[in-house]
Amino acid sequence: MQAISVQQPWAFAIARGGKTVSNQRVPTAHRGRLLIHASMRVDLKACDSPLILAAGWDPRDPLATIGAVIATARLDDVCSDAVRGVPCACGPWADPDRHHWHLADVLPLPRPIVALGRPDPWEPKPSLVAEVETMLANTAALNPRP
Ligand SMILES: [Zn+2]
């Protein structure tokens, strides 16, 4: 399991708004589950961007918080074309000069779990992973999918 710390409102856009590309400074060999952590810093300028508004940004939403894990996702692929100056088709969320981490199967947490993050991708403690998994399992039990 790996975790990434993402500034708000971008973390919210992953958890709730269909943002399926996370722009990271580094690539990773990790594939599979990933914790999405909202870092302590907020990208204030981004709060008015059309992309973020279209993603339904709502500062009153519990997942608009900072300093907490707010979702899990599955990391399917990493596109490094942009850092090599090669055009790619990663869509409107992809920034130039960044590795594009492609996320799927995003599960927003019913409530945030306070945790310390790091600027670079990090390895969450087993106790944190267990807390996230227990919360998601309880949510699935309460809301069974048809
Ligand atoms: Zn790309």
TrEMBL record:
Q: Output the superkingdom of the source species.
A: Bacteria
Q: Which SUPFAM superfamilies match?
A: PUA domain-like
InterPro entries linked to this entry: PUA-like_sf (IPR015947)
The name of this protein is ASCH domain-containing protein
Instruction: Identify the species of origin.
Output: Actinomadura parmotrematis
